[in-house]
Amino acid sequence: MTDTPRFYWGTATAAYQIEGAWLEGGKGLSIWDAFAHTPGKVEAGHTGDTACDHYHRFAADIALMQQLGVNAYRFSIAWPRIFPQGRGAVNAEGVAFYNRLIDGLIAAGITPFVTLYHWDLPLSLQLEQDGWLNRQTAEDFAAYARFCFRAFGDRVQHWITFNESWCTAVLGYGTGYFAPGRSSPDEPYIAGHNLLIAHGLAVEAFRKGGFSGQIGLASNCDWREPLTDTPEDKAAAQRSLEFFYGWFTDPVVLGDYPAVMRERLGARLPHFSPEDQARLKGSVDFLGLNHYTTHFASATPPSAHAIAPEDGNGGMAADQGVYLSADPSWRRTAMGWFVVPWGFRKMLNWVHKRYPNLPIYVTENGCANPLSEEENSQCDQFRVAFLQAYLAALLDAKQLDQVPVQGYFCWSLLDNFEWAYGYSKRFGLVHCDFASGERRPKQSFYFYQQHIRDHHEPD
Predict the structure, then answer these.
(1) CA distance 429 to 73
(2) Per-residue model confidence as pLDDT tens digits over 157-167
(3) Any catalytic annotation for residue 164?
(4) What does each C-alpha distance from 34 to 143, 253, 310, 434 come to in angstroms?
């Protein structure tokens, strides 16, 4: 199987958010299993125990994707479903499940894009060795990745090592908002460092193992628009982007962290050994971008319309020296995120300018509809308008600006478990009744279906 230069229109999901079957099929516990079962950590006490029951209903979900007309599907493998203890004995039932899923996708003409880590670290590795604060977890991840390459690499040609390492580091180890729920000003940089080392070790295993296909990284970033044309605000916006997307992308492309991070953080930012630096530099075949919103950025507090993000600008406001604000006319999603399509186009251009020789996949983009569940169940006009505007911005970046975008994955196929928000936020093109498991395509499903038909590129 060889890669073709087609454009991929797809959807994306994550294992913990949709699979359920948390104690079935030999699966071990993850940090999110523990976190969600801890009182007060997730809205309304929700858990991913059942979620969308995708573990039992994946065949029906593949049929929905066929109906939608996507030619690609991005999903994650649950590490504790393969290695219940994070290492050691392999769980054959977990391997069999992903074989069935991958085979079903290929039979349906849908290309699998596999994410190896979407936040569900095996709980044993957190308890035994402090998770991503320990380099040993990076070594364990590389062994898990190597197994997946061998087990599924005959059919999977597109691999993503990590999803949104910024969230793992900052929300998991900085603010405590996500699992494992730690709060520290310095631990995000240690965790982020080990996540990068894990990526480098996994890519080394992929390339030295002679596996075919592409391997990359999916990092999230909101666009930062300078509040004014002053040099100070322009520098603040650039600094914020480098602390956000550059943090995890500069090392895998250029071999080290952005210079501005080194300057501002000093000894708080770890250094790569020569061996790790050599592994990291040039360790991606493509870049993934997860993009949802835009803010203004300034070097001093804005005089009006200032906002204070719930996480305090990622818990790193002082580290960055950046203030965020917004235009009061911007519409907001149910997450409180601003709808700014031109920021998406600018973000794509920024990525291409900074890393000019790499293709880009939009590995996530979408919105939670700001309506009641009844209104949102099918007639999700807000999401239709969002997708219409953001897809237009994507095509402008691709066709007019010549940004080498090779795929777009809408988040998400199904309404699902939205982490600390539980089931209160719905991102799906398909409505999921979490009590019965019933799926019903929404209006946005049919909009995206028609968009794919209108923009299909022959193989």
Answers:
(1) 14
(2) 999 999 999 99
(3) yes
(4) 24, 35, 23, 21
Q: Which residue has the tokens 């039932």?
A: 93
Residue 59: CB atoms within 10 A of its CB come to: 11
Where do the domains of the chain lie?
Answer: 8-298+328-454
Q: CA-CA-CA-CA torsion for 179, 183, 189, 191, nearest 10 degrees?
A: -30
Instruction: Count the Cβ atoms, other than its own, within 10 Å of residue 220.
Output: 19
| CB-CB contact of 241 with 355 (8 Å) | no
pLDDT at 119: 98
SS3 assignment for 303-330? CCCECCCCCCCCCCHHHHCCEEECCCCC
Q: Is pTM beyond 0.90 here?
A: yes
313 neighbors 320 (Cβ within 8 angstroms): yes
Q: What is the pLDDT of residue 458?
A: 60
Sheet holding 223-226, edge to edge: 223-226, 294-298, 323-325
My answer on whether omega of the bond before 412 falls inside 30° of 0, hence cis, is yes
Q: Which of 19, 204, 364, 418 is catalytic?
A: 364
Rg of the Cα atoms in the chain? 21
Yes or no: domain 8-298+328-454 corresponds to CATH 3.40.50.300: no
Rounded average pLDDT over 64-93: 98
Sign of the Cα torsion 288, 292, 298, 300 reads negative
Condensed to tens digits (0 to 9), the pLDDT of residues 266-304 reads: 999 999 999 999 999 999 999 999 999 999 999 999 876
- Active-site residue, selected from the candidate residues 19, 164, 242, 418: 164
The string of pLDDT tens digits covering residues 133-154 is: 999 999 999 999 999 999 999 9
Q: Residues 164, 219: contact at Cβ < 8 Å?
A: yes
The pLDDT assigned to 451 comes to 98
Span 192-206, pLDDT tens digits = 999 999 999 999 999
Q: Are 33 and 22 in contact (CB under 8 A)?
A: yes
Beta-carbon-side half-sphere exposure of residue 76 (alpha carbons within 13 Å): 26
- Does residue 371 contact residue 379 with C-beta atoms inside 8 Å? no
